[in-house]
From TrEMBL:
<dbReference type="Pfam" id="PF01746">
    <property type="entry name" value="tRNA_m1G_MT"/>
</dbReference>
<feature type="domain" description="tRNA methyltransferase TRMD/TRM10-type">
    <location>
        <begin position="1"/>
        <end position="236"/>
    </location>
</feature>
<comment type="function">
    <text>Specifically methylates guanosine-37 in various tRNAs.</text>
</comment>
<dbReference type="GO" id="GO:0002939">
    <property type="term" value="P:tRNA N1-guanine methylation"/>
</dbReference>
<dbReference type="InterPro" id="IPR016009">
    <property type="entry name" value="tRNA_MeTrfase_TRMD/TRM10"/>
</dbReference>
<keyword id="KW-0489">Methyltransferase</keyword>
<dbReference type="InterPro" id="IPR029028">
    <property type="entry name" value="Alpha/beta_knot_MTases"/>
</dbReference>
<comment type="similarity">
    <text>Belongs to the RNA methyltransferase TrmD family.</text>
</comment>
<keyword id="KW-0808">Transferase</keyword>
<keyword id="KW-0949">S-adenosyl-L-methionine</keyword>
<dbReference type="InterPro" id="IPR029026">
    <property type="entry name" value="tRNA_m1G_MTases_N"/>
</dbReference>
<dbReference type="GO" id="GO:0052906">
    <property type="term" value="F:tRNA (guanine(37)-N1)-methyltransferase activity"/>
</dbReference>
<comment type="subunit">
    <text>Homodimer.</text>
</comment>
<dbReference type="GO" id="GO:0005829">
    <property type="term" value="C:cytosol"/>
</dbReference>
<dbReference type="InterPro" id="IPR002649">
    <property type="entry name" value="tRNA_m1G_MeTrfase_TrmD"/>
</dbReference>
<protein>
    <recommendedName>
        <fullName>tRNA (guanine-N(1)-)-methyltransferase</fullName>
        <ecNumber>2.1.1.228</ecNumber>
    </recommendedName>
</protein>
<feature type="binding site">
    <location>
        <begin position="140"/>
        <end position="145"/>
    </location>
    <ligand>
        <name>S-adenosyl-L-methionine</name>
    </ligand>
</feature>
Amino acid sequence: MRLDVVTIFPEYLEPLNVSLVGKARARGQLDVHVHDLREWTYDRHNTVDDTPYGGGPGMVMKTEPWGEALDSALADGYEAGARGPVMVVPTPSGRPFTQELAVELSERPWLIFTPARYEGIDRRVMDEYATRMPVYEVSIGDYVLAGGEAAVLVVTEAVARLLPGVLGNAESHRDDSFAPGEMANLLEGPVYTKPPLWRGRDIPEVLLSGHHGKIARWRRDEAFRRTARNRPDLIERCEAAAFDKKDREILSILGWKPSEDGRFWRRPQAVEE
């Protein structure tokens, strides 16, 4: 996979050289190119922004530097043999970035990131490049950052770990929270490792039992407990067909009941046991 990032803070992307992403780069699984947007400015101040039309606070990133930078990145990529680019625009007004979207992006051969600063990029840039490639406007959460570089790091790590050969255990990501499939609407439960006793705290006996069926059930029950506590909306949105008899039993214990449409809702003031 090829990644291009156009930014006014190339140094912000240094974490792409470490951990799983850095190892994937070293092995040639990720071909990362970071471009300094200011290289495509021609005034002595290297200006990349201007006041917004219509008035209002803040500044807007200009079309000319972005257009030239993106044209250059595309030309370099095509010359190197890359194909099938998509543009990823981190923005608080984009669609939520989810595990499902991470999987979708991991299947693309070439991602071009456009992290903005100030009040964002002149809309015409996205409209122009949407005629040349798919454009994904994505939000990593309901909050506002000073710029989109942090979002680039988040999306890149979420996508890169899904690429073949990046994780040491190819099956590791299948049990992730939000992983597509049966467990898609449950958070992952707690995990433990050696030693079995630490500061007077032991681990659940079931994990030492060697009984794989009981261990799997315990993990799923714990996933339900954590999801009910931290993200009850995920259970509310889940189709009832995803729950087996044991799932329904733990949901009942946690204070949930099936509604007429088959989905579950939590009884008011239900207390987890």
